[in-house]
Amino acid sequence: MSTAQAPLIITLGDPDGIGPEITLKAWHALRGSGPVFAVAGGIDVLARSAAALRLPQPVQAASCADAPDVFSGGLPVLPDTPGIRAVASIEDAVARTRTGEASGLVTSPIAKSALYGQGFAFPGHTEFLAHLTSDMAMTGERGPVMMLANSQLKTVLVTIHQPLRDAIAALTPENIVHTARIAAQALKRDFAIASPRLALAGLNPHAGEEGSMGREEIDILAPALEILRGDGIAITGPMPPDTMFHAEARAHYDAAICLYHDQGLIPVKTLDFHGGVNVTLGLPIVRTSPDHGTAKDIAGKGIARPDSLIAAIRLAGNIAANRQLAL
Fold first, then answer.
1. Top-level class of domain 139-282
2. Cα angle value 156/112/316 (rounded, 5°)
3. Interior CA angle at 18 toward 59 and 264, to 5°?
4. Which of the residue ranges 35-39, 84-88, 159-163, 182-186 would you say has the lowest mean pLDDT?
5. C-alpha–C-alpha distance, residues 43 and 216, integer Å
6. Cα 111 to chain center, whole Å?
7. Which of 227, 253, 223 is nearest to 239 (CA)?
8. What is the pLDDT of residue 86?
């Protein structure tokens, strides 16, 4: 089976969260149009969730090879894997994606605190996926780098889950250059943008106002911009963060390089709170995820919205197709 024909794989994440519910709802929304996907185990969890939601029983044991034939009439579920379900399902899904049995991976949220108590040694999904694919060859610089994307905006983060004080202290020309290079290569390969345009956000109000409101733009951002432009990357900046996310400004770039977590997530979630997708750039496999947590407080109530998961599935399918065309 070629990569272009292979289904995506979805992991259920935390079985006590909304992963099973939104997976079922995503299948109902996509069964007529695709992309085709299979679920990495959890057939019992999905069956119980379907019964609780009073949905027609759609769950059907199937292999990746059978998934395209099954998908319109039933949700294909791969055999369960041993071990910690959330962790083992990720390992199984990555292994299938590595071989081309699956074209990409969509991960539902996991409750990291529960996994840490069972010996999980990584900060989260992203670092675990980087570890599981570290021996795979790939062209270009290697991530992982986090992108948040919706239909109106793509933001790429230089620093992620750090206190703001630590994130600012961690900024260097080198990590800005690394992030922007990965963003540029991903826009070409994964999003089929032949000549990507980047915009670098400033750190301080008014992008530092020529040093009167902070020197980071002069001492850290300007050297990074010089290196990137020397690479031939089209990048503007540093841009004042309060004026770079309105519609007219967004028309002039394909992705914004943001310096810390909230600088990149607030505009994405403001523009489309339910449709945001977390994309991991710089991996040799395709990986997306809905941009929300496990939402255990509403799990089992039938009210969880599948919009972000549906968007993540569609985007993973598009990226997989673009990568195949780029070969």
1. alpha beta
2. 45
3. 125
4. 84-88
5. 52
6. 17
7. 253
8. 76
Answer positive or negative: Cα dihedral of 259, 261, 262, 267. positive
Q: What is the pTM of this model?
A: 0.93
CA dihedral 11, 43, 38, 300 (to 10 degrees): -60
- Stated as kind and residue range, the H or E segment containing 51 is helix 43-52
Q: Which residue has the tokens 């994405």?
A: 268
**Six-digit token string for 255:** 């992705």
b/e map 146-183, b = 16+ CB within 10 Å: bbbbbeebbbbbbbbeeeeeebbeebebebbbbbbbbb
Output the six-digit token pair for 104. 């990409």
Peptide bond into 35 cis (omega under 30): yes
Q: Tens of pLDDT along 256-311?
A: 999 999 999 999 999 999 999 999 999 999 999 998 888 888 888 888 899 999 99
101-130 per-position pLDDT tens digit? 999 999 998 877 767 776 788 887 888 999
Q: Where in the chain is the domain with CATH 3.40.718.10?
A: 1-128+317-327, 139-282
pLDDT of residue 251 exceeding 80, the answer is yes
The structure tokens listed for 120 are 């999980």
CB atoms within 10 A of CB 79: 11
Class of domain 1-128+317-327: alpha beta
